């Protein structure tokens, strides 16, 4: 398999919270072995831009969480609204969004013929009081329902607050409902100690300011991305299975492997062939902050015989709820 199509390796988090120094050294050694893929930044960069040519979306994505029953007032009763699949139920909810306003922001579907019995096919469309803290009546393997969220324009945005500014990320519940569920839990804890960016590379002369690949140029290095971790003290990260894996575009935010390492793409990476779970995208007007981060001082390191660039000073961030002030 060509190097450019391989998933970016998962970087083991610092051993700072693992306790013993010996364990820290072992973890660092394991990281050095596991992290073969990219080498990084070039001093040559295109001009900064505050918008991408085409922001990523969740068009065509309509997924939910199995074993979850969301509660809340119904805007369409499931007993009178039978559909063939959870995807159809999700699409029915999305159809109630007009000009950025969603009369339905959550859906509940019963798709197990045996367990649902006479309720098979019921699609309940609901409206949450707070879509980023949805009401849950039941959750677990014994729950026969599948539920999902739909964000209106300006909703479902989390901010990664750094000393350079706040990177606002639009989450994509239809593409990556498990990932969005993780962020909802993260926000409820009001903590992300240890969350940080630790490596950065610019677009070099290989991609233009809109993220388009320059004709006849190589595909790296540099590889036009930021990488960090969303694992923090006090919470064990549960590795998650792949969800939707569209081609990465400029602004795409995706898990590296099964997480908690993640990346933000600074360019359109169609050459990576659907290797990553994309769970959100940076709002175009905030991409200048990501580009600024790619200009920070770095040091060379070697991971599995590959020379890489890591930030001399990691950029720590807090995860907070945010909004798109430009949204109507």
Structural class: alpha+beta
| Largest sheet: number of strands, sense, barrel closure | 10 strands, antiparallel
Instruction: Let me know the average pLDDT.
Output: 82
Let me know the CATH homologous superfamily of the largest domain.
Answer: Cyclophilin-like
CATH fold-level name of the largest domain: Cyclophilin
Percentage of helical residues? 10-25%
Q: State the end-to-end distance.
A: 46 Å
SSE ordering: HEEEHEEEHEEEEEHEEEEEHEEE
Radius of gyration: 21 Å
| Percentage of residues in strands | 25-35%
By CATH reckoning, the class of the largest domain would read: Mainly Beta
Segments where pLDDT lies below 50 for 5+ residues?
1-8, 10-53
Describe this structure in words.
It is a single chain. This protein folds into 2 domains: 3-57 and 156-322, Cyclophilin-like (Cyclophilin), CATH 2.40.100; 65-149, Hepatocyte Growth Factor, CATH 3.50.4.10. It is 14% helix and 27% strand. It is built from 5 helices and 19 strands. It has helices at 21-34, 86-94, 113-116, 177-189, 287-293; strands spanning 65-66, 68-70, 74-76, 97-98, 101-102, 106-110, 123-126, 136-139, 145-149, 157-162, 165-171, 196-201, 225-229, 252-255, 261-265, 278-282, 298-303, 306-316, 318-322. A 10-stranded antiparallel sheet has the order 17-18-12-13-15-14-16-11-10-19. Strands 1-9-6-7-3 form a 5-stranded antiparallel sheet, with helices on one face. The longest helix is centred in the first third of the chain and has 14 residues, at 21-34.
